[in-house]
Structure prediction request, 254 residues.
Amino acid sequence: MASQTTGRSEEPGYHAPVTAIEPDRSWRGPVATVLIGVATAVVIVCIAILPFLSSPWLAFEQGRAESAAWTGFSEADVGRVTNAIVADMLIGPGFFDQEVAGEAVLNERERGHMRDVQSVFRGLWILGGASLIVLGVAALVDRTRFWHGVRRGAAVLAVGVVVLGVVALVAFDALFETFHRLFFAGGSYTFDPSTERLVQLFPFQFWQETAMAAGALIVALSAALWWIAGSRERAASLRSERAAGHPNPAPEGA
Prediction:
């Protein structure tokens, strides 16, 4: 009996390759890369600012900025009060009620600003924790994509910080003002250096030099991670190619 052909086998339908009917997922790769890159940048920033919250750095930079001369406090009192303010900001309770010779160091408006700063830092730590989770999951799901995203994120962060550094060299005041406007209500962060202790403890020079040092550390960490991630990405990609090119042999008798 002559075989009969039907048109069904020639039509893309049930018997067509699965890839022909699956929804387009081409957007997932770029989105994953962006998420990994952003998470990488956040983690680098969180790590980079930690040394500048330490007592040694605070004492060193306040000495350079002559905080003791600005406040009229002894260097011991400057160190004690500064460390207490930073500890209050990082771990609470956020009263900022430090005293010297029985007098409050900060007035109520200054305390209010420090509570705002505390909220910003809490948000940063939460974002940093979420970023670590994103990176951990990404590393487990696709190691090649993970290192690709890390490399991109580190590169973009480094370039961005370099650009901001160039701007800061010629317009640090404007950059500092813009930063505060992004995170704080207008007028809540301006203080009189002749009478208010917050800007006497942390003078303009303190912030300028600390920002420069933090930026340099961010660029250094980003460059190191960019190099490491590039090497790991190539290795992971090579392993994937080898695995795809040499599938496991089928069991005997299959």
About this structure: The chain has a mean pLDDT of 87. The CA atoms of residues 6 and 100 lie 95 Å apart. The first helix runs from residue 18 to 21. The radius of gyration is 28 Å.
